[in-house]
Amino acid sequence: MGIGNRVNDNAETKITPKATAKPAQAEQQSEPLPEEIFVPVEPKFSFDDIILPARVREQILNAADYAENSKVVFEDWGLSETHKLSKRIGINLYGEPGTGKTMAAHAIAKHLKRKIIVVNYADIESKYVGETPKNIRKVFEAGKKTGSIIFFDEADAILSRRVTNMSNATDVSVNQTRSVMLMLMNEYQDFIIFATNFISNFDPAFMRRISMHVKFELPDEECRRLLWEKYIPKKLPTDLDAPDIAKKFEGISGSDISNAVLNAAFRAARKKLPSVPKDYFYQAVEEILESKRANALNGGDVEKRVVSKEYYDKQVEKISKSKRGKK
Question: The pTM is what?
Answer without folding.
Answer: 0.73
